[in-house]
Write a structure and sequence with these properties.
The structure holds two protein chains of two kinds. Chain A is mostly helical. Chain A contains five helices and no strands. The radius of gyration of chain A is 17 Å and the shape is elongated. Chain B has two domains: about 40 residues; about 120 residues, Rhodanese-like domain (Oxidized Rhodanese, domain 1). Chain B contains eight helices and seven strands; from the N terminus they run αααβαβαββαβαβαβ. The longest helix of chain B is centred in the first third of the chain and has 22 residues. The radius of gyration of chain B is 26 Å and the shape is elongated. Classes of the chains: A mainly alpha, B alpha/beta. At the A-B interface, helix 2, helix 3, helix 4 and helix 5 of A face helix 1, helix 2 and helix 3 of B.
Chain lengths: ~150, ~170
């Protein structure tokens, strides 16, 4: 139990980072298909979809790598948190407008993931992000008071 | 947190700016052609997938009459040859469901203009062949497929033109 408590922060951080790296690589592999997924939300104009499809996966990739490496975790996690909020808003708007679309979160043009499933998944990722940020904040407080590095969550 | 709040903000901006630039540089060819409008609109690319799962829309008697009068619709009778010969909506073509099901990729032999609507019907609300036929047509790629659920009985009882014979 104490072992789990000891490793949980790193486990959550690395899992979250790996998920984002995986998602990013799938999108980088097929930017045109991802642009199609973005356009299907009918939020962005024509070129906006392509610009998002070009830039967003690389932001995801970068933040994922930072989280996995444990370097600049707070910035990486904050960006991932904001991205997740944006995804949740976009998915919710798709649900409200009754759009029957694939979320485009991971593999493009594969098996369809409904907005509801994707929404639930994003909420989970958001919770993981929040946990990572909380651990970071505690670690900071710990180092400020000179309690030594990285007192694990307790 | 408060120790280096500004630092974190700068760091976030930097990370986003750098990775977004890398992404834009990575996809510069695609973006250039998209900017010039040379790439297919992504919404169009996504459209067939959206249509593939769309159920054919049902139409009421009046809507069908208007479309037929405006010559904007092709009527398809999903019933058997015999039923068709006994009476059908004037101007309708006969495409029994079984025949369409045998050749689902190219079910229609008649040429349908791209903008025209296809309306399928059979023997009224208790008959589901028209819906099945419409689904085959949607899968085959026809964009505007509708089902007239009232079918032949409702049309005939409303006193609208019917015809006999032929196929």
């Amino acid at each position: 139990m104490s072992q789990l408590k000891h490793y949980l922060p790193a486990l959550v951080r690395i899992t979250l980072g790996a998920v984002f790296i995986y998602a990013a690589l799938l999108k980088i592999a097929d930017p045109v298909a991802f642009a199609g997924s973005v356009a299907a939300y009918r939020i962005l104009p024509y070129f906006g979809s392509y610009l998002t499809a070009a830039a967003l996966p690389f932001v995801e990739l970068c933040c994922g790598i930072l989280l996995v490496l444990g370097y600049r975790v707070r910035s990486g996690a904050l960006i991932i948190g904001v991205l997740n909020l944006v995804f949740i808003v976009a998915l919710a708007s798709a649900i409200v407008r009754g759009l029957d679309i694939d979320c485009g979160c991971f593999k493009q043009g594969g098996e369809k993931t409904t907005p509801w499933t994707a929404l639930a998944r994003d909420v989970l990722f958001l919770a993981m992000t929040w946990f990572v940020l909380k651990v970071e904040a505690r670690r900071d407080r710990g180092s400020e008071t000179g309690a030594g590095p990285a007192a694990p969550a307790g | 947190m408060k120790k280096n709040g500004l630092g974190t903000v700068m760091e976030i901006l930097l990370i986003v700016a750098i990775s977004a630039s890398v992404g834009i540089a990575w996809n510069r060819t695609l973006l250039t052609s998209a900017w010039r409008g040379e790439v297919a609109r992504p919404a169009e690319a996504a459209a067939p997938a959206a249509n593939a799962v769309t159920e054919p829309m049902p139409l009421g008697l009046m809507q069908v009459k208007e479309l037929v009068d405006a010559k904007q619709a092709v009527l398809l009778d999903a019933r058997s040859r015999t039923s068709f010969a006994e009476g059908h909506l004037q101007g309708a073509f006969n495409l029994p469901l079984e025949e369409a099901a045998k050749n689902p990729s190219r079910p229609l032999k008649v040429q349908v203009p791209a903008e025209a609507s296809i309306i399928t019907y059979c023997n009224g609300f208790s008959c589901h062949d028209s819906m099945e036929l419409a689904k085959i047509l949607v899968k085959a790629g026809y964009p505007n497929v509708y089902v007239y659920e009232g079918g032949f009985p409702e049309w005939r009882d409303a006193g609208y033109p019917v015809a006999k014979g032929g196929a």
